[in-house]
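Morning!

This is the sequence you dropped in the shared folder:
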Amino acid sequence: MQALAFYRTAVGKKVVMAISGLFLVGWLTAHLTGNLLVYRGSEAMNGYAKFLHSQTPMLWSVRLLLLGAVVAHVTAAVQLTLQAKKSRPVAYAKRDPQVSTLAVRTIRWGGALILVFLIYHLLHFTTGTVHPDFNEEDVFANIQSGLSSPLVALFYLAAMAAIGAHFYHGLWSSIRSLGLAPPAANPFRRRLAAGFAVIVWLGFTSIPLAALLGKLL
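The structure's back. Tokens below.
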């Protein structure tokens, strides 16, 4: 009951967002590491995919944890937004974002785009529902053909930009929300988060670009 009462507060929701966000950061980092095997060719990529699918208990455990983290993160974010609107039904006449970054100011729209992308991505590469030439046994070919469409590749690139911005803001703000670092005007952890986010963004962005340019061989 105390945990539920704590969650009902804005601080409680921010803590849930921080914990779920850090889990998603870890998962994205691991996901990127695996995806970069695409540059080693079909044998490496398909071998990695085959290994993952052979670990059924682990795979489904991670999927369930991922689903729980996404649901918790989105739910807390929506509830925080509604709470903020309820506490101030009339918007500020003038907003002066002196301290906030572009990532902060676009966090809600970026989050909505990421959610839409996540659904599409699952339908595209997991179930193959919207993939024009899906082959469950050939993940490399799925990536190669699935991202060869300019429209699809552009959508992925836009989603990767949103993920990069979300990753950056979430990484440094989660540490602050959990009380692991004191607030500061220009904290070093923000620069570290920015550098890490750029690396992750570049890694994910390179794959649809390579597929679109025919560089995945």
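Headline: The chain is about 75% helix and 0% strand.

More detail when I'm at my desk.
O.
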